[in-house]
Known about the structure:
Blueprint: H1 3-16, H2 20-42, H3 56-79, H4 87-92, H5 94-110, H6 116-121, H7 125-147, H8 155-175, H9 183-208
Amino acid sequence: MKTEDLIRGLSADSSRRPGLGAGLALALGPGLLGSMLLFTLLLRLRPDLAEILAEPRLILKFAVTLTLAAAASALVLRLSRPGADPRPGLAALLVPLAILAIGVGGEMAATPESSWMTGLIGHNARFCVALIPLISAPLLGAALLALKRGAPTRPALAGAAAGLVAGGIGAALYALHCTDDSPLFVLTWYTLGIAIVTAAGALIGRRLLAW
């Protein structure tokens, strides 16, 4: 059988299965519970959370992380179907990047240059880089298992997309604890934490999702 015929057959079989979107949502449910359990065991809600829910810098953290998770979910669904063009899903990832860029630009315009490095370094950088991947681990496992219901022809890229989903949600959970609100901190340390999850997804997915 030719490779093209095999891909068409897998694509047709995938389309007859229950919706992959519903499967991803169902798989992420237990993963989210696992991540929330880790959060409960390791962290606590920041004490001023109720008072600063309307603070623009806090809103920015959730806007960036959750739009990243949403855009990456769309990419995961595309990559789970053989032969699907991933470019629209990849383009959607520009949305959280644009939100973060606006936030960083606003921060640099509104604060003196002497304070930029303080905001970038923050107080909890090492915890941020370690805890985002840890909290994201159950979500990553759930997203990768959901991807196995499909037939991704780019397993490493699909695994990386699963890592972005997990990292985005995990970072949003971590933001409930983190008191470093500068967009410069988010740009540096949240991005690094999510990148670790993404790299882990690519490495695991390369083997787990191969067929």
